[in-house]
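Deliverable D5.2: sample structural annotation.
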Amino acid sequence: WYRNMVAALVGMRDQFAKVGTDLILVPIPMRDQVYAAKFLREPPADGVLQPYWLKFQHDLLSRGVEVVDLVAPFTQALEMRPFLYHAHSHDGHPGGDGAVLAAEVIGRRLKRYTFQAPPPVYKLEPAVLRLPTTEKLYFPGPPEIPYVRVLEMDGQPIGENHTAEALLIGDSMVTAPPSGPNGSIGAHAAHQAGVAMRYFKRAGSAHALTYHLSMVQDPGFFSGRRVCVFVFSASCLTATNRPWRFEPFMDHALRR
């Protein structure tokens, strides 16, 4: 199972490389990865709480696949950013603070690129996410959660740019509603990096994303992308009931 996962991610990198697109993996940490240290009387002497996480990064990096580690920044931000996760509940989606923090890290990485298009201009606006009555039964946190949303300068939601040089793909972490409308990782990453983006999301399907990419019929979908950021829940790295699969999606696209 683990070997299949590594092979699928290496294969994804190789497929994007065929059209000159870099691939960057961004697993969104699970809650227990971030909060684990708070429940230990004696942390490990070497400070390593999750050796499997280090192994995953090492195995991918040694094969030339870039992995952005969000565990450290999320852990360090626990005291300063109370809404890293949605509504202080079991929900693993990022809250307003988590979406912004993840986007800041992604943005710093993407700023290493020189994009051809002029940077888009967006504005930030504070907002409040009000939990539906049905959800309040499950979320012990406050019913109103502050977040920051990203808007066009005229106040409209930022639109998707079909010719963007950056592609953001993944599961529901890409545009997770718990981060607030227009306050998702995708929206904030576009703002932080100063680059327009195109998105591709298949909720709950990070492990099968190459299959979904192989179903894309738009012949220009993969054209002109300088970089692809793959954002997904880190739970996919340990969910043995969801085996990773690989489809040569770019080969299919090139044949079309």
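Annotation notes: The chain has nine helices and seven strands. Residues 129 and 180 are 6 Å apart (CA to CA).
The annotation will be released with the project's public dataset once the embargo ends.
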